[in-house]
Amino acid sequence: MKKLNISAVKPGDIIARTIFTESGNVLLGHGMELSDRYIERLKRMGIDTVYVEDKHTGDIIPEEVLRDETRKLAVETVYKTMTGLMDQPKMAGRCSLPDLGTSFRKIFGEIMVDVSAQKNVVINLSHLYGMDGYFFHHAVNVAVLAGILGMAKGYNRNQMIDLGVGALLFDIGMTQLPKELWNKRTSLNDEERQRIRFHSEEGFNMLRNQPNISVVSAHCALQHHERYDGSGYPRNLKKDEIHEFAQIVGLADFYDALISPRPFRTGYMPNEAVEYLFACGNQLFELELVKKFLGHIAIYPVATTVQLNTGHVGVVSFVDPLSVHRPTIRIIVEPDGSPTTSPYEIDLKKRENMSMIISKTL
């Protein structure tokens, strides 16, 4: 399969990776043939990339972090919880939600079963969903990324559960906001910006007294927008004043937001997001934490379509964890624009004169 920008997808292309709705259900499943109507619908939903079948890259399959069943269960749980709280916002901060901690501890346990089974520690978040589903899928992605970093830091089981529950519920305070603020397509005014900022405190107040949810998990909601240099909110904490779990959740939140399409911009390419994040070291986030995090992120994910400085077009077929910036590329188009009669691979580790050009139009 190969990953294409939606602008490069054509009627007749076959979906190679499931696309999900906001609630975690299947929108377009593997094997579906795309029509003009489907393509236009995907564009309206804000989906900017699609995995399609290709005869030259049929054996190129990016490893899934989560099985479809796990993601569906996790997103459904987040969706039902969050939408339920939106329907009773004035009660949410005062009432007890006895099943909240139990259900989210169970969900994170399922996520970690999948993550722990990964042979390759270089992770590519390849699931696709529309902008309306961002809030719900984003929580699951943040939990995956936070879990990977927690494993890398050697946390014990109890620490992992506290981190994972905090990661799944870090944005629970957003349920207390008018829904139109989440995906507003125009600039926020000062009042709206201040209202959104208050979600971290609201989330903390909602979680801190819930059974089976630790105060540490609640602090992930309170502090995930605090920044290493003191420029964050709500308390302008800096460096070690920010709990490490909240720093991890904030970092995962920041990265996934960068690579996701938002109402006001297209998503960053993973390599762009990695460069941006690295530049934030010891400013927005502790540099050593950023380095450890980026050591497990696919800069050039398998199945990404790329162009080389020589004019060749190909698809990333393999990423060596020890050399993530120089993957192996399967060439499918020659420099003159003609399709290759017999695709071949170039290992960039062995071709120092070659470099990649990652284009959002490919």
Automatic annotation (TrEMBL):
It comes from Brevibacillus fluminis. Residues 135-258 form the HD domain. InterPro entries: HD/PDEase_dom, HD_domain, HD_GYP_dom. This is HD-GYP domain-containing protein. Residues 114-309 form the HD-GYP domain. Pfam families: HD_5 (PF13487). The lineage of its organism: Bacteria, Bacillati, Bacillota, Bacilli, Bacillales.
